[in-house]
Amino acid sequence: MTGATSRVALVTGASSGIGAATARLLAMRGMRVIVNYLRTNTAAEEVVASIQDTGGQAIAVQADVREAAAVKNMIEQVQVRWGGIDVLVHNALTPYVIKSFQDMTWEELGGKLDDEMRAAFAVTRAVLPAMTEQSWGRIIYLGTGLSHQPREGMIALGTSKAALAQFARYLAQELGPLGITVNVVEPGPVEETRMANVLDREHKQRQVDATPLGRLAHPGDVAQVVAFYASEENAFMTGTTAVVNGGMSMY
Description:
The protein has helices at 17-28, 41-53, 68-82, 106-134, 155-175, 201-209, 219-230; strands spanning 8-11, 32-37, 57-62, 87-90, 137-142, 180-187, 241-244. It is an alpha/beta fold. It holds the Pfam family adh_short_C2.
């Protein structure tokens, strides 16, 4: 495989929001895209249709990425049609609670940590054989600024994504000699996403007021950064984190 037009990209959690925007953009740039989803088949097929309507190639494949057997089945389906995965964008967001630590059970905190790392482990292990064989691969994990900047009630999400970010750095170190880059994209608040929908209008306005660029991100803003990390042009960045928050937090 030598060009972007021959690359196959798997985007987990791609039926809406950042995942859908990323799937569309990667397809626009010539990749063949697997639109992974958990429950919303109709939404996933709409993403596929929008890609095909503009001349791109995409398929929707259902899988719970927390389950190794389901991920293995998904990869096998793709292999029959397109071969191995060249680009992994792990965007799927597993459930989490919004509450204080003192009101939280271990099952709520530990369960989120387990789901987060189990999913990352399963999808990464599944795509590595093809990447290793060809000495080329791109892995991008979607994190969150809450890993660095705590916010009330978000301890489960922030802690689990902090673990994911460190996991990515270890992988970057180990997989670099094999020609595989591993990077993290950390959005701030993003419009049109599940996280944005839990915030009231007043809270959103406070976030806009704290953002030098004067608005919250759109899914397409994040997709642009993911697409760079996924591209041929990203030949010498690995183990890095791209913060996409309009300057809300600077670190």
